[in-house]
Amino acid sequence: MVFAVVRAGGRQEKVEVGTVLTTNRVVADKKGNVTLPAVLLVDGETITSDAEKLAKVTVTAEVLNDLRGPKIVIQKYKNKTGYKKRQGHRQELTRIKITDIK
């Protein structure tokens, strides 16, 4: 069983080959692939956390599609002053599938 912990979109995610995850928007190369930096690698009984060895590890993923997250409504209100503010936000997201851990 091989899995890795990668840094993806400002968070750390535990991934295996075939894992589909949604991260903040990432830019793919011309072939539609993304390389993610590994933070930890577990290969059977061996656990690799050394930075020099992890620099040689590549975790590649293919971009499935770009999407937008749910709308978040931000409301501010101050009593007795008449101040009201309403604002919305939708996060730009990318769905990726892990294809290889070397």
From TrEMBL:
Pfam families in alphabetical order: Ribosomal_L21p
GO cellular component: cytoplasm; ribonucleoprotein complex; ribosome
Quaternary structure (record): Part of the 50S ribosomal subunit. Contacts protein L20.
GO biological process: translation
Protein's UniProt keywords contain tRNA processing: no
UniProt source species: Pseudoclavibacter terrae
The organism's place on the tree of life at top rank: Bacteria
Protein's job: This protein binds to 23S rRNA in the presence of protein L20.
Protein name: Large ribosomal subunit protein bL21
Similarity annotation: Belongs to the bacterial ribosomal protein bL21 family.
Gene behind the chain: rplU
Annotated PROSITE patterns: RIBOSOMAL_L21
PANTHER family on file: 50S RIBOSOMAL PROTEIN L21, LARGE RIBOSOMAL SUBUNIT PROTEIN BL21M
